[in-house]
């Protein structure tokens, strides 16, 4: 089924069938490069350099790099290329560039496309480090950034100008799980000629078909659901071949945000089980959110899959699932929230998400500690708010642990 070839050889063939496969099949097979040994599991090419047959061959490769030819792992590596091709295939993107972390991807996408004098409109409810890049770094280099409430289309309409170069948003925001009407925002942005950049981490490639909704560039932290087992950092930028090769690649290959071959292998194998894992995690999250609603220890249960979620309509129309994260507002503020955290026996206190293990975070004192009290209040990050990333454990065991912990207050 796959052509067998010597890595670095000139006779590389692509499997012509891959475009017609369903995404479930592509998640397991796309991008596979098999060496002369005929291995079943993709090889880890743990090498930063590549040898050339002759001085002429080296000169030739530097002059024009053919497909499946490599020079240096900061530019590209066979295992990294397998991951890039597989996720691009699942996502329906022309091309992808893998990065050392999700933040290297956000930074790489934004810094490579923007210059002093450009204008960006961004949703305000962002992952802390994304906010830092937009608010502190880009502005330091003369990029003007306007922040809007992501769920308010009028604010997007007012903020986007004829000279707006890009809009940035997280489809499902962290940690308050607002869902943005991506289709509508993309329409407004495209009317102004702006590039739509989406951080799709919370939604995963399975629940949000961001390109079909109008995104031009999609970013993942592979650290989260793609690895899904809490082992390593990674990220990826997906987009048109033109954008990835002409804008992103030159920036990243010279600034050093490349993904390591070992982590690329982990993420590549993670993609094979991604859909099975996140669908199961989503099923459990849905069950827990519904079961916890109305609990007397909670003033709010936020989950995009609940019928009373403020953007339930957008979720129904634009997403294939509501995600694997729930936000719980514990009555009694920070002290009560801490008591609940400390009483949990199965769910661990940490700040990753998308893991097979269920994880709970108190955003106000950890991930969003850097924000002022006023900023947190504006984003709905109360002192009682907990972010629960639902793992692969039994739903009944999780429910028992959560209700026992809530009982202490
Ligand atoms: C975790 C995360 C990132 C950053 O990813 P890293 O791999 O930790 O660098 C960016 N955006 C969102 C929404 C995230 O959850």
From TrEMBL:
Superkingdom classification of source: Bacteria
Coiled-coil portions: none
Entry keyword Amino-acid biosynthesis: yes
Pathway listed: Amino-acid biosynthesis; L-methionine biosynthesis via de novo pathway; L-homocysteine from O-succinyl-L-homoserine: step 1/1
Residues recorded as bearing N6-(pyridoxal phosphate)lysine in the entry: 224
InterPro entries tied to this protein: Cys/Met-Metab_PyrdxlP-dep_enz, O-succ-hSer_sulfhydrylase, PyrdxlP-dep_Trfase, PyrdxlP-dep_Trfase_major, PyrdxlP-dep_Trfase_small
Tagged with keyword Glycosyltransferase: no
Family matches, as Pfam families: Cys_Met_Meta_PP (PF01053)
Record key words, sorted: Amino-acid biosynthesis, Methionine biosynthesis, Pyridoxal phosphate, Transferase
EC number: 2.5.1.-
SUPFAM superfamilies: PLP-dependent transferases
Gene Ontology BP annotations: 'de novo' L-methionine biosynthetic process; homocysteine biosynthetic process; transsulfuration
GO cellular component: cytoplasm
Cofactors: pyridoxal 5'-phosphate
Enzyme class: transferase
Family (UniProt): Belongs to the trans-sulfuration enzymes family. MetZ subfamily.
Protein name listed in UniProt: O-succinylhomoserine sulfhydrylase
Organism field: Palleronia salina
């Amino acid at each position: 089924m796959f052509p067998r070839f010597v890595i670095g050889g000139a006779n590389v063939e692509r499997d012509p069938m891959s475009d017609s496969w369903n995404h479930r099949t592509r998640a397991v097979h796309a991008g596979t490069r098999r060496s002369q040994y005929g291995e079943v599991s993709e090889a880890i090419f743990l090498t930063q350099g590549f040898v050339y047959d002759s001085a002429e061959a080296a000169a030739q490769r530097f002059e024009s790099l053919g497909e499946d030819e490599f020079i240096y792992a900061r530019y590209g590596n066979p295992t990294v290329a397998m991951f890039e091709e597989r996720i691009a295939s699942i996502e329906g993107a022309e091309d992808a560039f893998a990065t050392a972390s999700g933040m290297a991807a956000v930074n790489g996408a934004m810094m490579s496309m923007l210059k002093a004098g450009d204008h960006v409109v961004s949703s305000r409810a962002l992952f802390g480090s994304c906010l830092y890049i937009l608010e502190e770094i880009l502005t330091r280099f003369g990029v003007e950034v306007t922040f809007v409430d992501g769920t308010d289309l009028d604010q997007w309409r007012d903020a986007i100008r004829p000279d707006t170069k890009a809009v940035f948003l997280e489809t499902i925001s962290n940690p308050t799980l607002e869902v943005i009407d991506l289709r509508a925002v993309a329409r407004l942005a495209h009317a102004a000629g702006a590039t739509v950049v989406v951080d799709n981490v919370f939604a995963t490639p399975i629940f949000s078909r961001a390109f079909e909704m109008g995104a031009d560039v999609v970013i993942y932290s592979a650290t989260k659901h793609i690895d899904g087992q809490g082992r390593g950092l990674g990220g990826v930028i997906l987009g048109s071949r033109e954008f990835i090769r002409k804008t992103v690649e030159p920036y990243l290959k010279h600034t050093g945000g490349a993904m390591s071959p070992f982590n690329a292998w982990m993420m590549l194998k993670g993609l094979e089980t991604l859909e099975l894992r996140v669908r199961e995690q989503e099923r459990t999250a849905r069950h827990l959110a519904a079961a916890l609603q109305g609990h007397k220890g909670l003033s709010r249960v936020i989950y995009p899959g609940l019928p009373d979620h403020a953007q339930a309509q957008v979720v129904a129309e634009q997403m294939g699932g509501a995600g694997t994260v729930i936000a719980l507002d514990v009555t009694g503020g920070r002290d009560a929230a801490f008591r609940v955290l400390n009483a949990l026996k199965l769910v661990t206190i940490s700040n990753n998400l998308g893991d097979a293990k269920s994880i709970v975070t108190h955003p106000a004192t950890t991930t969003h500690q850097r924000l002022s009290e006023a900023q947190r209040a504006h984003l709905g990050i109360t002192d009682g708010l907990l972010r629960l990333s639902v793992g692969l454990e039994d739903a009944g065991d999780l429910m028992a642990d959560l209700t026992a912990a809530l009982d202490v207050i």
